[in-house]
UniProtKB/TrEMBL annotation:
Pfam families assigned: DUF4808 (PF16066)
Species: Patella caerulea
Taxonomic lineage of the native organism: Eukaryota, Metazoa, Spiralia, Lophotrochozoa, Mollusca
Transmembrane portions of the chain: 130-148
Claim: Membrane is one of the keywords in the record: yes
PROSITE patterns in UniProt: FN3 (PS50853)
Protein name: Fibronectin type-III domain-containing protein
Amino acid sequence: MKDKQCLMVVSYITDAVVAPRNLTVVAIGTTRAKLIWIYFGPISRILRFELTYEWLAAPSGKYSVTCGIDVYKRQVTLRGLIPFQSYQVFMVSIDLDGTTSNTTNHVEFTTRGDDRAYVPVKHTMQVEEVIIISIIVLIWIVTVVVFWRRWDSIRILQPMEPRFKHNPKNLDTIKIVKRAQDSIIYKTYSRKLSLTMVAREKRRLQRMHTAPVLPTIHMEDVTTVM
């Protein structure tokens, strides 16, 4: 029985109508005032918001005005106020069944006595705004730190451009040496060059020590008769 009552209480609390929060006056003039608020709750279950403002120093007793506001609005401007007078404002939510929520925080303000300016009121940050901004900053910091730590692995995964248009054959068997004289290519090139020069020199010497073979000319004795 107690568990059933607890479930009923929890269900009632969950289905309860939520009132707007952080009702704040952000600008005050001689005959007008601008208010803003925030709302955390299901909009689909709310029929409208109701805002009530009271003239605190009304000469004829209590004077209040109640107006309905669309559920998607988060600000309203009160007009037709009396200069240099104090007012008190609060809001409630009305759901589809006509149920009224608790009232918001009561806000008092005083209109200006002259018509020279529409004075903005210094807006102080609310607890919800501080929490939301802190969460956003924290997420941003964590993202930067994770990216910075994984940058090395991300950079390694980048494709490396080959040094050659076509990789040389037997690339795995090539041995890196400190001196050019120790390379196989250098040694092979030097030996081939030496053999070629020796053969060329031998042919040149053979041509120098070989006498040319000339044809033999036979001379006959010719007697002239006088």
